[in-house]
Write a structure and sequence with these properties.
261 residues, globular, disordered C terminus, 61% helix, mainly alpha, single chain
Length: 261
């Protein structure tokens, strides 16, 4: 199937109702046809693996063509040039997540680009780092716990980023890592506890979100936060005799059903 034929099929299959509905999920795309994922999955099975077509479809910039590109690509043929080009061009959370979850996490280059994208100033590229890490945690059964442990400082460093889709990506990655094993769950809960005590609302939200899910999986209640000791209060210049500050609820980032990840 050629790129032209695929684009013609997308235009014919798409609907205005589906295009208008994308806004409910926080998806903003410059060019969209309104084709549901179910139809794209069916079409990808008809096409099969076709790396050349995958690259061409992504370059069209059409939202659904990009999703289909991720579905028909060959992870063994993904190059650094492709990883850089796609990551630099993620237009929204959905094309980035689909690329990571359906294709790029199976590339031998995946781990390398988690680190590269995590340092990107672009919101959707940085989100891609943690979508990729979450996908690796969910799909890669060969990598040892120690490799995921080494990624926790990267996750913690990104937890201070207040941008909505980065926040959601960091939480998704940390929750996914914690699901892999009891040792990783313990490490992720320890990190989540630190994040929960942050002064930053979105960082606290990440910590609370991760603690809630991983504690539930472990059959435990979310651990209560301990009050700061007199020693720690003195270290930060706060007298233990001062009135305790009024508690404030962590501000939850804007969310939709599709972006709960």
């Amino acid at each position: 199937m050629t790129t032209k034929e695929v684009l013609a099929w997308l235009e014919k299959t798409g609907t205005k109702a589906a295009r208008d509905g994308m806004a409910r999920y926080g998806i903003v795309a410059s060019h969209a046809c309104g084709v549901p994922m179910g139809a794209l999955l069916k079409k990808s099975r008809e096409i099969g693996t076709d790396q050349r077509l995958s690259l061409a479809l992504w370059d069209t910039g059409c939202y659904e063509a990009r999703l289909l590109a991720a579905l028909v690509g060959d992870p063994a043929q993904v190059t650094r040039t492709q990883m850089k080009s796609w990551g630099d061009g993620f237009e929204n959370w959905a094309d980035g997540d689909t690329a990571c979850f359906k294709l790029l996490d199976r590339s031998p280059l995946a781990w390398e680009f988690v680190g590269i994208w995590a340092n990107s100033p672009r919101e959707y590229t940085k989100r891609g780092a943690f979508a990729l890490l979450a996908s690796l945690a969910l799909h890669d059964r060969k990598t040892s716990d120690s490799t995921f442990m080494r990624m926790l400082p990267v996750v913690e460093a990104a937890a201070v980023d207040e941008r909505n889709f980065v926040v959601k990506g960091v939480s998704w990655a940390l929750r996914s890592i914690g699901r892999r094993s009891p040792a990783l769950a313990s490490a992720c809960l320890t990190l989540a506890s630190r994040l929960s005590s942050s002064k930053a609302a979105t960082t606290r939200w990440i910590g609370n979100d991760v603690s809630r899910e991983l504690s539930k999986l472990a059959g435990k209640k979310t651990p209560a936060r301990s009050a700061p000791s007199a020693k720690s209060s003195a270290a930060t210049g706060n007298s233990a005799t001062k009135a305790a500050p009024r508690k404030t609820r962590a501000r939850r980032p804007a969310t939709t059903k599709a972006t709960r990840r």
